[in-house]
Amino acid sequence: MAKTNPGRFFEDYALGDVITHAVPRTVSGGERALYHALYPARHALASSDAFAQACGLPASPLDDLAAFHVVFGKTVPDISLNALANLGYAEGRWLRPVWPGDTLRSVSEVIGIKQNSNGKSGVVWVRTTGLNQHDEAVLEYVRWVMVRKNDHDLPAPETVLPELRNTVPANRLVIPEGLDFTDYDFALAGEPHRWGDYEVGEQIDHVDGVTIEEAEHMLATRLWQNTAKVHFDATNRDDGKRLIYGGHVISMARALSFNGLANAQMIIALNGGAHANPCFAGDTVRAWSEVLDKAETTAPGVGAIRLRLVATKGGAPFQLRGDDGKYLPDVLLDLDYWALMPL
Amino acid sequence: MAKTNPGRFFEDYALGDVITHAVPRTVSGGERALYHALYPARHALASSDAFAQACGLPASPLDDLAAFHVVFGKTVPDISLNALANLGYAEGRWLRPVWPGDTLRSVSEVIGIKQNSNGKSGVVWVRTTGLNQHDEAVLEYVRWVMVRKNDHDLPAPETVLPELRNTVPANRLVIPEGLDFTDYDFALAGEPHRWGDYEVGEQIDHVDGVTIEEAEHMLATRLWQNTAKVHFDATNRDDGKRLIYGGHVISMARALSFNGLANAQMIIALNGGAHANPCFAGDTVRAWSEVLDKAETTAPGVGAIRLRLVATKGGAPFQLRGDDGKYLPDVLLDLDYWALMPL
Amino acid sequence: MAKTNPGRFFEDYALGDVITHAVPRTVSGGERALYHALYPARHALASSDAFAQACGLPASPLDDLAAFHVVFGKTVPDISLNALANLGYAEGRWLRPVWPGDTLRSVSEVIGIKQNSNGKSGVVWVRTTGLNQHDEAVLEYVRWVMVRKNDHDLPAPETVLPELRNTVPANRLVIPEGLDFTDYDFALAGEPHRWGDYEVGEQIDHVDGVTIEEAEHMLATRLWQNTAKVHFDATNRDDGKRLIYGGHVISMARALSFNGLANAQMIIALNGGAHANPCFAGDTVRAWSEVLDKAETTAPGVGAIRLRLVATKGGAPFQLRGDDGKYLPDVLLDLDYWALMPL
């Protein structure tokens, strides 16, 4: 009878279910302009048609994370509306750039399921694919969430744990067709440091900080049509706070990382990530990175660099976990990704 | 001598006056992106070119309310700058979709006038038409406002009360050319409920709430080039509050109504509406709807549904008026409109 | 070793240096929509393709100040990251309209240098040029900043003071190709006052005020990819305040000046400007103008008008300096520019 969407509970998922997520979305120069207004984003490839064309692309693609947020946002009503926790990401790969004018939609498949021992909740793993208007996959990733069980009397499903790679191997990275960094313009890109200048283990403090306002994170989150009430309704929590969408922190940290990683032009894979602590308006977000790995690619002049990106709301850079092995309270995000960088 | 616009007073209107409103505006994907950032808007037809094309349209039109706000915003300097109250709407009809790239302008005709008995103010009725760059009407509506009289000694004009329909009759609804819901994709649209699933008298609580920030309503109101100072200048009222543009509440409530009315795709007529109480930053807006009527249309697979949309800032849903017949203090908006829905 | 950009210090500039600024930017309808959302901008030429075409242009250009902000924003990491003060502007000229789809980049040449007598800082003059994707100059201006010296032991450079005009002479104004105000539509533009209606010495109070929010000035400043931390990081100053980008005040004041100067359609030259006092969130910005000069142009129906634009955060209009000759504390901006107006 009720016409509104109550969200799915743990018992509403079964292994192999394929969920078509609602509300396809056409993106344009408007999404690009807003992305630049919401984040201090300056990576040249996502800023300039002329720069992208000099790198072999037909035009400047939508920022990789903007594409991620659009695809992710569509999954919220089906995957995380009743989620108790967003537990992790794995095997994320960008498969094709998103251009202004493209229409994106999302599909998810349930690839793992496990009821918790308390019988009141469980963990669901889904592999989500973002598709464009030509039914070409632009993005895929796995995420797993802890979801409430509505009817505790229902039997537990058979546990199936998906086999997930800890890291996307370099030979599985998909380089955008035509990408060529042979004539890369380092002056226009903003920094002289190339792939060979970064060493595995190197840490970079990105220096700048941004204090977040309620209006900004709500604008950003709505832009991706993620309408989960925790982000918008100040009456939802006892403390009157609105929880900031974790993706907002990812984009803020990535944009801040321009200062020191201006040439890490495209995010091409998401190996894993944790939203270590919640972020609220008034927090001042800072970021630091660590080089985890490097790899060559088959594209001319293009190297791959694997980075840890950490966002904090205080404390010194390069501090991640306490003696107990847990994230320090000022750590907001611990993200592990591959980017493309000129050799 | 003064170069600035003092706005019109009651004595500046005469029956039959035709007012050309200033500042035509070209809309683009930028306005669409901002609309999605400002409101939790998810109706698929205004979100996706591919979805709109599958419904027989050449592209995704600008959200119907965005078109309304652009047309309305232009009228503010001429109609409501000195208004004491925005009294009502009637006979609103969307006549043609607005596409990115269109340029809109507005014209109003004075169709009714009545001086108040106190001699210090009066009511003016205008019929406003929004036109595109081909001089085609895209939208028309009547609104009436109470306006201050500047020179109380001037004689009262002859009272003329326009004859206005309480409701736009279903046979006067203008369906966008080509619209066809025969192959409507309910999964992509977000809900399975079709026209036949809604009953006259049915009430729907849209569940979600959005807490409004000053920055957001000011961005929205400026986007429509509505620059009335009450919305922007915190020094304008003794209490330091900025009054939120009533259209912001309309769009917020309409977007919230996606949850339960995802298939009420296009607003096609505005039968009436009242801004029951003022809205201020910090208010958490919620919405509920009531099905008032249903009608068939001549377009394939397309039904019409007449809805009451109520926005509140607290209280229980489905409470509208007190024992005295007046709107309850938590009611912000009471809107009566026709939408199009797949059969 | 450090990968992050520490900014340039005084000793890093030498006369004749040419600096290629990073991060070219493609603009679209998204930037235009955001400009209208951020400022109460209503000048018809930058709002409507149809209006612009009726004035002989191929389309509506990006607002002149939006073009300025894009060009200026790129220079911040190289010119003003370590600036102690933004001392002045001169010889600014708009050379060519910026159209949606254009890609802008910026280049600066050091044209003057002078170490301060304290040996700890100095003044650097640069002439910045904004270029489009065809390497055509769209904008040029001189600004000078006081910059910290990092190594006080280094010798002072030879002082070179550039010769700068106090005012761009009318015969050096560059009128956009094709501009023709012969059939200018004053009703659509919003005011009847033409070039001949303004007298040198005339002062106009623009009446309206806008109270500024943190979220808004940060969105605006990021949109121009100006990421100087003083604008974003509330922990950067002892008082927890974020300094508002001076360009935000310029755009706000210019937009407010529509009310009284609706026909001052294009800013065509920047003669000078001072950010008299800092602006912070919560300030209510108002504006007044004074006609400084008038000139004819060679374009049909097009006159030039030189205006002083003053932004304030309080106090009465038309008050600029105290008895000591200093700007009054409520004055935020004193700008001197040429605009184009129909005869």
Automatic annotation (TrEMBL), chains A, B, C:
<dbReference type="InterPro" id="IPR052342">
    <property type="entry name" value="MCH/BMMD"/>
</dbReference>
<dbReference type="InterPro" id="IPR016790">
    <property type="entry name" value="Thiol_ester_hydratase_Rv0216"/>
</dbReference>
<dbReference type="GO" id="GO:0016829">
    <property type="term" value="F:lyase activity"/>
</dbReference>
<dbReference type="InterPro" id="IPR029069">
    <property type="entry name" value="HotDog_dom_sf"/>
</dbReference>
<dbReference type="Pfam" id="PF19315">
    <property type="entry name" value="MC_hydratase"/>
</dbReference>
<dbReference type="InterPro" id="IPR048274">
    <property type="entry name" value="MC_hydratase"/>
</dbReference>
<protein>
    <submittedName>
        <fullName>MaoC family dehydratase</fullName>
    </submittedName>
</protein>
